[in-house]
């Protein structure tokens, strides 16, 4: 019996998905688990893996088409199998959750460059994306071990641009009179565009309020240093904050909620998203059940998520179900900032750098390491008093983190 390829559902609120690119052509053989198609949701571009081994047949949705969740978009026929004569049903009763891989990919208006059929050339999804962005014909790139990867495409671009630089400079000087500093319009990729759309929606629909608090980070720094020595892991302040925020949220469940149809809906889960900046934009992978994890488990989970986010290898479950987000810009030297809420969540914590500041200790001035926290809340869900109580509890944990061990 033919296997249906359907538009998968990646979240409760998702109703449609847009087809970015078929990675296999109709009539080509496919193997179960290999990349088959890229689709775009309201969060990110995802890569669907083939649900079965066979031949791709009866593709009913083309690139750029928006398809309802659950609709059959193709069939996979087993060896010797024929497609049924009847029309493919518009939707399936049970939505097939096809295996997916989430990547930081971008779509291009004109598809891949002209030349050999790029879909048939063995190349990693990241290599295909980079090639599309830089106008590279994959047929001209030499891969290693029979497959083109990111390094191969970058090497080709570097060699090509080195040879083309003098011509490009000459053409620029001989242009139609535009000044060298004339503004240029840059295309944005899918991740950046989705980030722009989501933050715009959040900013224009959720009434933001901001609560800020300076905290003494001396004991936080000491905790990190000691935990690093004990565990042998490269623990970051973000790891520590995920642990502390998770503990604080257990006592303040009102912050893990959302506004839906005029009512506050409690989540009941503490799944903390960590904002990660990649070349293509901002993505927020999620540490699920953070309140049930040790510091070491959180660190290993974060390291894995960040590594795969940069490699474009996140899975759908890695970005689903977040109930609270942390955005830490301290490593960039930022003292303080206010973050835009990550919908449909009700709050996000913005964290600045730890730096020495003059504070009053026992009525006398002293220099202490300090940091500024900024809590952005959706006022429909979290009022000032509720947010302040959470922020106070978190500040207490940061200033006395060893109380967790008591």
Main traits of this protein?
single chain, alpha+beta, 7-stranded mixed sheet, 406 residues, 8 helices, elongated, 25% strand
Verbal overview:
The protein is α+β, with helices and mostly antiparallel strands and 406 residues long. It is built from 8 helices and 20 strands. The protein has helices at residues 125-133, 150-173, 190-205, 218-231, 237-251, 295-310, 316-319, 384-399; strands at residues 3-6, 16-22, 29-30, 35-40, 45-49, 54-57, 66-68, 72-77, 100-103, 208-216, 257-260, 263-266, 272-274, 276-278, 281-283, 286-287, 324-328, 347-351, 355-361, 364-378. The strands form 5 sheets. Strands 10, 13, 16, 17, 18, 19 and 20 form a 7-stranded mixed sheet that branches. Helix 5 packs across helix 6 (295-310) and helix 5 crosses helix 8. The chain is elongated and about 85 Å long. Residues 87-100, 103-116 and 164-181 have low confidence and may be disordered.
